[in-house]
């Protein structure tokens, strides 16, 4: 088990992607708070739902692209049953 943990720590780019995930998540929460506090009252409920869903899709695209590129490079290194 320790060897596997050491291999993960030596994988380049992992810390960058974890940091990106944290920053994007916090940024999304800040966006939602600001949106609902200052802008949401100008729009209908359906428009606000659309804004939230669009922001989730944008977050998914950013994080998905970031993690997919890493998993393509290093995913086979951590395959189960290795």
Roughly what fraction of the amino acids lie in strands? under 5%
Span between N and C termini?
13 Å
Total of domains: 1
The number of helical elements comes to: 3
Quaternary assembly: single chain
- How many beta strands in the DSSP annotation? 0
Radius of gyration: 18 Å
Query: What would you call the shape?
Result: elongated
Biggest sheet features: none
Portion in helices: over 70%
Low-confidence parts, pLDDT < 50 over ≥5 residues? none
Q: Helix and strand string, N-terminal first?
A: HHH
* Average pLDDT number: 87
**Class based on secondary structure composition and strand pairing:** mainly alpha
Walk me through what this model shows:
There is one protein chain. This protein is mostly helical and about 80 residues long. The protein has one domain (about 1-80). About 80% of the residues lie in helices and about 0% in strands. The chain has 3 helices and no strands. Helix 2 packs antiparallel against helix 3. The longest helix has 30 residues, at about 45-75.
């Amino acid at each position: 088990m320790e060897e596997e943990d050491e291999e993960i720590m030596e994988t380049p780019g992992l810390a960058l992607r974890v940091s990106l995930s944290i920053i994007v998540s916090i940024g999304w929460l800040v966006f939602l708070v600001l949106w609902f506090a200052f802008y949401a009252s100008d729009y209908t409920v359906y428009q606000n739902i659309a804004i939230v869903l669009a922001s989730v899709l944008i977050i998914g695209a950013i994080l998905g692209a970031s993690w997919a590129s890493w998993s393509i490079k290093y995913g086979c290194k951590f395959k189960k049953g290795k």
